[in-house]
Each structure stands twice: as structure tokens, then as C-alpha cells.
């Protein structure tokens, strides 16, 4: 029965059937074949999505989109250029900083890459950066988004691993996220120095205080979200919804960039993005129920643990497995497929599940801009009009650097766990 | 960005598509507003408005299923197309397999969803916090699964798949 479940799932998934459907159908076939009762099908789907914690997903999606539409990105770009000043590679550094700040508002990588790409791509090309380099930098920068809180990936992880709370994961992602961003800045700066990008500064440095004042409205959003959660006043969902209405006011009253039509578009688009995620959640619950009733993942985890691998080898092979999976799948699907298998293994070795979530998410971040299938890189390559293969000479440096940061967090768990411990979430 | 492919994509489904979009926007707007009211009420009064969570959750269920239907028409569901795109000869078969598999799962959900709703009605199950009949909530699963089934039949018949 275990093999039937995986066989059908793998066959459907690799033939391009929507992932949600592949999981749901594989689960259903096994439920029917082993006589577990077909009524579990609608019950699991309904209770799978009718959960209050899942509300965080649509609300974080719409928070990111509304700030993007309000035109906050452009003011943050000016502020970041004022901070960075004029030097070799300054625009590349600005792009990464902006992606990190926007990551504090939205929670998904491809959306962030698209927002940063729209603002930074034209000016970077004008300043003489090669298109391939530009696409690579923005894609890599966007990947820090799922590490820097708020992050939809962490919300899903917490749903599947209740021992790791959302605030603890958000706090744990902060330092690794900033560290990844800093690593990328170093790589972008080094590459720009080596190749002499931006020898003649294109635009004058914006005045610091004025740009801070303009960007202040946008910069306040992460403060509201994270501060509201930290004070214990808001749940993550409520913090995000406050940010949505704040963004609505900023766009409507302060910047006057949001028309009612834009708001309608934001509502539709965020509903579609969220429902694609929630469809996976709904149908994956059939798969999860079938496999846990049959004990599939317990058998598999036992078999893997029975092989008697040393702890370190196990950890590194899990990372390699996730890295490969990350090239083909998005973070949320990977959590649903792999967590039921990985959590028993992590518990066996007494790994901290918050730290494990951060390491796993760093893997996903890496997969988002790793050719041939990184979703962020797909977005930015389409915007820059280059093929993904052509970015390899640039993007590989960033992949290597980010993998280095990931190994650092793997071997120094305190990088992730210090902040949540200080804040009292652990 | 996707309004373009919608215009060419579903001439016949245009009205259904716009109904779906209105429903998606309304449920999204309503669930944000409810959650916001919840925060405000708790801040300014001692009154608990938390029972609205039940309504927010059902709005999310409705939004998910309507959005899923819309995403089947616009092909926005997450799928691994890497291998299929490497073999153009199978592309058509694969697209058809995708539509038929989706049809199968949502068809089953529509049928068994009716039984689930009937059970809720028959046993007079009431919801945990508002105490209203549970079938008011559970009926959306079979109803909207049927919408998805019709959507997928449309996709198959148009020969897009």
C-alpha cells in the first residue's frame, strides 16, 4: 500500500498534473483500496482548510501586494540609495537591501522578486550592468524573503510542526535572513569590483533625511507587523491585517496611488495566489491522512534510521535531498511532501525543530534562484529577457555563497536560536 | 498581467470568469474586514468578537474553492511541467491527464461532499461557536466542487487540454 501511494503520487506529479490533485488522488486511491472509508475524503478536505491559523496565508499575501501596488518600493529604493551612496555596485547593493526590506512586509519570494525587478531593472540596465547579472542578483535577493519575517513558508511549517510556534520561527529566521542578504551584498559588490560595473555613477545621491521621510510610510510596515506580534498584542494574522489596512490608507491617502480599480485587482490577485496555496493544503490533507493511517512515513523513517547512518551524514543527505527537491518544487509543497518523513528523523536525533525549520527554509530559499528551475530566477529572467542558462556564470557565485551561509547556520544553531531564546519564544 | 491571457483564453467562459473574480474579491475583502473589526472591537471594548472567526474561516473555504476553479482555467496551479515540456509529443496527453485527474478528485469531492452535508443536516449538527446549523458551512464543498467540475469539463471540451 505504501508503494501504491508513492507510485501514483510520483507518476501524476511528474506528468505535470497539478501537485494538489496528485496528492489528493493518490491519497484517495489508497483510501479506497484499503477500505478506510470514502467519507474521510470530504471530511479531511473540509477540515484541512477550515482552520483559523491558515488565515495568516491570505492576509500576508494581500499585505505584500497592497504595499507593492501603493508604490512603496520606489520610495524605499531612494532611501536605500541614500544609505549606500555612490560606489562600485551600489545599485546591485540597493536592489538587495530593498528586497530584504520588502521581505519584511510580504512573505513570498517570487512576488518580492517581481516587485524589486520592476523598480530596479531599468535603472540597473541604464547604469550598464549586464542583463544576466541583474536578473541573477534580483532573484537571489528575493529569496531572502521567505527567511525574513513575516514568511508564509514559516506559517505552513508551524502548521505541520506544531512544536515550532510561528513567532519562534519568525524570530529564528531573522538573523539567518539578514546574514544571507549580507552575504549576497558581499558577492554582488565583489563581482561589480572585479568587472568594473557602474564606474560612472548614473544618478545623484538622494538627500538622506528627505528620502527617509518619504520611505518612512513603507518602513513602518515591518515595524507594525513585527512590533505588534512582539508586544503580544496581535496574533500574526491580526498583525498582517492591520498592515493591510495601513497599506490601504498609505496608498489611498498619503501617496494617492491606489484607485478603487487597483484595490479590486489586488483583492482578486491575492485571492488567487492564496487559493492556489490553500488548494495544496486542502488536498494534501487527504494524502497526509492516508499515509498517517497506514503508517507509511513511520515505516520509511524507521528504514532510514535503521540504515545506521551517523547523525552528520544523515543531516547532510537530508540537505542534499531538499536542495534537489527545491529546484523542482516550491517551499510549501516540499513541506507537505517531506515533513511527515523528516520530523520523526529530526525527533530521533533530538534536533531542535525551530532550527530545523530555519535550515530547511534556507534550502528552499536557495532552490528559489538555483537554475534550472528556481521560481524567482524564472520571474526575473522573463523580466530581463534573458535565458536562465545565460545567468549561470553569475548566479553560481551567489548559490555557493548562500550555501555557505546555510552550512554556517547548520553547524552554529545559535545563529537561528539566539533571537527567539532572548525574546522568550523558546 | 493575466487579464491578457484571460481575454484570449476564455471567450465563452468570460462571464463565469468575472463572476469568480467578483466572488474571490468579495470573500477576500470580507475576511480582511472581519479580522480588522475583530482587532478594533477588542481594543476599544471588553466585548469579544471572536465568534466571527467561524465566518472568516468559511469565507476562506469559499475563496479557496472559487479561486481553485479560476486557477484551473488560467493554469495557475502549481505543477511540475519540467519533464512534460522536454517531451512535446506527450504534451497534449499530459494536459488531458491533468484535467481528467482534477475532474476525478473534484467529482468525488462533489459526490461525497453531498453525503457529508446530508449527515450534518440529518443529525442536526450545530457549529461550535455560533451554534448555527453546520450544513450552512459544509454545503459549500459540494456546491463549489461542482463548479470546478464544470470548469474542467469546459477546459477539456475547448480542446485546450
Please, could you describe this protein's structure?
- The complex is a heterodimer of chains A (426) and B (161).
- With 426 residues, chain A is mainly alpha-helical.
- Chain A has helices at residues 2-14, 19-33, 40-49, 56-69, 72-84, 90-103, 109-126, 131-142, 152-160, 166-195, 208-230, 236-254, 260-294, 296-306, 311-328, 331-348, 353-368, 375-384, 392-411, 414-422.
- The relative contact order of chain A is 0.16.
- The mean pLDDT of chain A is 88.
- Chain B has helices spanning 3-9, 14-44, 53-74, 82-86, 91-122, 135-138, 140-157.
- Chain B starts with a helix and ends with a helix.
- Residues 1-11 of chain B have low confidence and may be disordered.
- The interface between A and B is large, with 57 and 56 residues.
Individual helix count of chain A:
20
- Helix/sheet category of chain A: mainly alpha
Please report which band the strand proportion of chain B falls in: under 5%, 5-15%, 15-25%, 25-35%, 35-45% or over 45%: under 5%
Distance N terminus to C terminus of chain A?
A: 39 Å
N- to C-terminal separation of chain B?
22 Å
Overall pLDDT of chain A, averaged? Answer: 88
Spans of chain B of at least 5 consecutive residues whose pLDDT stays below 50 are 1-11
Helix/strand order of chain A, N-terminal first: HHHHHHHHHHHHHHHHHHHH
Question: What coarse outline of chain B follows from CA principal-axis ratios?
Answer: globular
Q: What's the overall geometry of chain A?
A: globular
Oligomer: heterodimer
Total E-strand runs of chain B: 0
Main sheet of chain A? none
CA gyration radius of chain B, whole angstroms: 19 Å
Mean pLDDT of chain B: 85
Low-pLDDT regions of chain A: none
Counted beta strands of chain A: 0
Estimated helix fraction of chain B: over 70%
What is the H/E order of chain B?
HHHHHHH
Tally of DSSP helical segments of chain B: 7
Summed up:
Chain A has 426 residues and is mainly α.
Amino acid at each position: 500500500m505504501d508503494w501504491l501511494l508513492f507510485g501514483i503520487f510520483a507518476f501524476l506529479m511528474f506528468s505535470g498534473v497539478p501537485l494538489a490533485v496528485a496528492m489528493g488522488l493518490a491519497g484517495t486511491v489508497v483510501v479506497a483500496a484499503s477500505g478506510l472509508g470514502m467519507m474521510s475524503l470530504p471530511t479531511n478536505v473540509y477540515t484541512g482548510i477550515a482552520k483559523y491559523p491558515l488565515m495568516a496565508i491570505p492576509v500576508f499575501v494581500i499585505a505584500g501586494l497592497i504595499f507593492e501596488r501603493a508604490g512603496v518600493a520606489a520610495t524605499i529604493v531612494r532611501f536605500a540609495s541614500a544609505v549606500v551612496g555612490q560606489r562600485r555596485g551600489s545599485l546591485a547593493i540597493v536592489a538587495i537591501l530593498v528586497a530584504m526590506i520588502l521581505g519584511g512586509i510580504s512573505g513570498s519570494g517570487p512576488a518580492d522578486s517581481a516587485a524589486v525587478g520592476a523598480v530596479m531593472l531599468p535603472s540597473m540596465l541604464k547604469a550598464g550592468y549586464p542583463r544576466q547579472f541583474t536578473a541573477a542578483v534580483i532573484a537571489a535577493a528575493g529569496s531572502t524573503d521567505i527567511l525574513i519575517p513575516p514568511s508564509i513558508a514559516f506559517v505552513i511549517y508551524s502548521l505541520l510542526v506544531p512544536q515550532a510556534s510561528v513567532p519562534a520561527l519568525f524570530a529564528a529566521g531573522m538573523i539567518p535572513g539578514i546574514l544571507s542578504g549580507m552575504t549576497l551584498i558581499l558577492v554582488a559588490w565583489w563581482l561589480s569590483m572585479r568587472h568594473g560595473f557602474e564606474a560612472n555613477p548614473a544618478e545623484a545621491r538622494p538627500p538622506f533625511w528627505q528620502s527617509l521621510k518619504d520611505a518612512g510610510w513603507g518602513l513602518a510596515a515591518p515595524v507594525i507587523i513585527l512590533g505588534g506580534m512582539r508586544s503580544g498584542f496581535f496574533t500574526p494574522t491580526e498583525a498582517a491585517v492591520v498592515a493591510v489596512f495601513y497599506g490601504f490608507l498609505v496608498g489611498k491617502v498619503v501617496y494617492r496611488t491606489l484607485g478603487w480599480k487597483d484595490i479590486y485587482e489586488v483583492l482578486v490577485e491575492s485571492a488567487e495566489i492564496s487559493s492556489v496555496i490553500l488548494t495544496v493544503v486542502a488536498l494534501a490533507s487527504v494524502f497526509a491522512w492516508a499515509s498517517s493511517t497506514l503508517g507509511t512515513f513511520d515505516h520509511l523513517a524507521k528504514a532510514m534510521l535503521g540504515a545506521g547512518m551517523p547523525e552528520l551524514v544523515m543531516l547532510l543527505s537530508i540537505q542534499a535531498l531538499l536542495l534537489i527537491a527545491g529546484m523542482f518544487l516550491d517551499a510549501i509543497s516540499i513541506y507537505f511532501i517531506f515533513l511527515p518523513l523528516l520530523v520523526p528523523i529530526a525527533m530521533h536525533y533530538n534536533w531542535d525543530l525551530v532550527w530545523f525549520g530555519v535550515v530547511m527554509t534556507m534550502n528552499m530559499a536557495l532552490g528559489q534562484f538555483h537554475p534550472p528551475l528556481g521560481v524567482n530566477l524564472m520571474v526575473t529572467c522573463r523580466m530581463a529577457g534573458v535565458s536562465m542558462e545565460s545567468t549561470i556564470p553569475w548566479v553560481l557565485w551567489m548559490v555557493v555563497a548562500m550555501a555557505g551561509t546555510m552550512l554556517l547556520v547548520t553547524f552554529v544553531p545559535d545563529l537561528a536560536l539566539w533571537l527567539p531564546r532572548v525574546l522568550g519564544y523558546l | 498581467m493575466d487579464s491578457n491571457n484571460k481575454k484570449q483564453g476564455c471567450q465563452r467562459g468570460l462571464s463565469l470568469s468575472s463572476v469568480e473574480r467578483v466572488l474571490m474579491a468579495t470573500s477576500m475583502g470580507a475576511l480582511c474586514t472581519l479580522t480588522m473589526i475583530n482587532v478594533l472591537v477588542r481594543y476599544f471594548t471588553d466585548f469579544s468578537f471572536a465568534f466571527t472567526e467561524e465566518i472568516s474561516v468559511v469565507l476562506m473555504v469559499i475563496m479557496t474553492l472559487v479561486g481553485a476553479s479560476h486557477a484551473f482555467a488560467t493554469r495557475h496551479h502549481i505543477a511540475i511541467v519540467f519533464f512534460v515540456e522536454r517531451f512535446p509529443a506527450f504534451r497534449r496527453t499530459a494536459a488531458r491527464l491533468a484535467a481528467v485527474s482534477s475532474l476525478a478528485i473534484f467529482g468525488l469531492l462533489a459526490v461525497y461532499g453531498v453525503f457529508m452535508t446530508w449527515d450534518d443536516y440529518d443529525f442536526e449538527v450545530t457549529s461550535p461557536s455560533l451554534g448555527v446549523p453546520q450544513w450552512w458551512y459544509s454545503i459549500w464543498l459540494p456546491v463549489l466542487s461542482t463548479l470546478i467540475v464544470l470548469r474542467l469539463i469546459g477546459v477539456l471540451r475547448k480542446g485546450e487540454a
